[in-house]
Amino acid sequence: MISKVLAGLVALAGTTAVAHAGLTFSFADPAPGPQVSFSGGVGGLLTFDEEVSFSFVVDGSSEPVPFINVLTARLELSLTVGAAVPLGGGDFAAPVSGSFRFYDPLVFDPTQSTILSAVVADGVFLRVGAGSSVNSDSLVFGLSFVAGPQLEALLLPGRAIAPLFDAVFTLTDVLNDAGGSVIAGPDGGPISAFTANASFSGSANVVPTPGAVALMALGGVAAARRRR
Q: Could you tell me the pLDDT band of residue 219, with boundaries at 50, 70 and 90?
């Protein structure tokens, strides 16, 4: 009987948290001039200028203690881009993988400066019409977010981020080395070097930590025994 009550409460706690709580992350194109650079070729590196600061919005308005936190942040971006596959009409897709990290440059201790970090196990660079983006999520591509100390301080004790995770970098004013906007040939293959402006949006669920869930479950068991 007790094991069934525990299992039911754990399942209910997890389902409720995922359904009703979550965080969104975003920054707008931070400054005139390009912030993103791609070194070009198959296996080339996509990076972000770490001298550029921007307002990184962490929206926890659905949390038990709501918050919207705007930070002067910086981005460490390292994504490897593979060969493009043509989609027709000049559009293409290319695989990406790597990592990125949002951090607070005013916190000098590197172990405490991270706001949010991510491992992109897989993702896709998309060029559709005049728009370009880098997309990943935890359901299809295996994206993994980790909350840094700066974000953990905003959450109530006993709360943690969890899948589903998603992340989209939107690239605008994409220009290759020759000043043109086409960055892969009609047959796909290597993508030429380019620069671009960028914005970002992402999201994560927030759930009770295992210890918090266990306490909730034990409390439920105690209540059930009192009712008997």
A: very low
